[in-house]
Specification:
With 301 residues, this protein is α/β, with parallel strands linked by helices. Helix content is 34%, strand content 29%. It has two domains: 212 residues, P-loop containing nucleotide triphosphate hydrolases (Rossmann fold), CATH 3.40.50.300; 58 residues, Alpha-Beta Plaits. Helix 4 runs antiparallel to helix 5.
Amino acid sequence: MEKQAIVVADMKVMRDRFTLGPLQLSIPEGYVTAIVGPNGSGKSTLFNCLMNFMKPSKGSIKIFDHQLGLENDDELKQKIGYVRELPSTYDAYMKGSDKAKFNSRWYRNWNETTYQGLLSLLNARDDIPLKKMSKGTRRKFDLCLALSHQPDLLILDEPSSGLDPIAWKSMIETLHQYMESGNKTILMATHIVDEVKRLADYIIFQYNGKILGFYEKDELLRSWATYFVESSDKQLGDIRHVPGYVSHKNNSGQHLEVMISKAWEAEQWFLEKGIKVHTKQLLELDDILLQHINQVGHFSN
């Protein structure tokens, strides 16, 4: 049974115009898990709770079997690296090098060689005040800080925001290197589909404060597809009986276009029914998310 880096149990956060949860969530240790969802889904609120910057209204959070809020969390935070969506402003007038020096005194496992190597790899700089850094430069610098104490858990909120394509590729390489030991864990929120494809082992869909699903990435992307089948075939019967049926529509009167969430089972069904499949198209991740959101809207009406 896989060890869990994070376990969220019945957690709920209530605000005037937004409610997160209740959430049941387990993040496996040693893998990259990406949370995907539109703005306002509650991803940053969840991360603030994981970092103990915000207290949930109910429920509990365990990170590496340590329950947040019951005792001193300082020892736990030695094991966590965090890149927030928006950089902090309280240290805006510090030079990057001074911020790094402060971190080196706080984190016992701070490695100056690792820090300098990351600055070089990401083409980042720390010789100017944080407030004068461009968005992309600050992003690269914050990632260097988060990784230099060699954390066991890396929490990234939109890590590539502001990065140019070259810096983005360097970030992907850096995160792959971080995961090479096999005992590190990343939990990230991102809008970048290619980022999920290149990095994630697992995907969480989050929308309007709710978790819509938790999936193994490769299996998810293999399972959702659109099939174009012969619409005049008498064996079709009720197409809604096909395993994983989502929707269908006529395509120019010649083919039936059927969206499926269980591709392998559907292909067996088509074969058994003698239904000819002309074309199969796998769905992109953002289209799969949209279908999940549409199903929520359908069930709530």
